[in-house]
Design a protein that fits this description.
It contains no helices and seven strands. It is an all-beta fold and 86 residues long. The chain has one domain: Immunoglobulins (Immunoglobulin-like, Sandwich). The strands form two sheets. The protein has a four-stranded antiparallel sheet with strand order 4-3-2-7, with no helix packed on it. A three-stranded antiparallel sheet has the order 1-6-5, with no helix packed on it. Strand 5 and strand 6 form a beta hairpin. The radius of gyration is 13 Å and the shape is globular. InterPro entries: Ig-like_dom (IPR007110), Ig-like_dom_sf (IPR036179), Ig-like_fold (IPR013783), Ig_V-set (IPR013106), IgHV (IPR050199). This is Ig-like domain-containing protein. Keywords: Adaptive immunity, Immunity, Immunoglobulin. It comes from Cirrhinus mrigala (Mrigala).
């Protein structure tokens, strides 16, 4: 999955991936901070990879071995902090 960012630079703020499975609560997948470091939810560490291209200002989510439970609406969203130490 890809997310084209507009209105801010990926290096200026953290950006999260979240998903909303049908009939269930939203789930936090992980965040890539302005510095480029990544934090992921425990249940997403093994099959989900977050990356970015700062030149294109795009965010990516790669999911390996897709499963039926991965069916969801996926969102990327800006946070109000640049890194985990802010």
């Amino acid at each position: 999955l890809s997310c084209q960012i507009s209105g801010y630079a990926l290096t200026d703020y953290g950006t999260v991936w979240i998903r909303h499975p049908p009939g269930k609560a939203m789930e936090w997948i992980g965040i890539i901070w302005g510095s480029g470091s990544i934090d992921s939810g425990n249940s997403f560490k093994s099959r989900f990879t977050i990356s970015r291209d700062t030149g294109r200002n795009e965010l990516y989510l790669d999911i390996s071995s897709l499963q039926t439970e991965d069916t969801a609406v996926y969102y990327c969203a800006k946070t109000d902090t640049v890194d985990q130490f802010s």
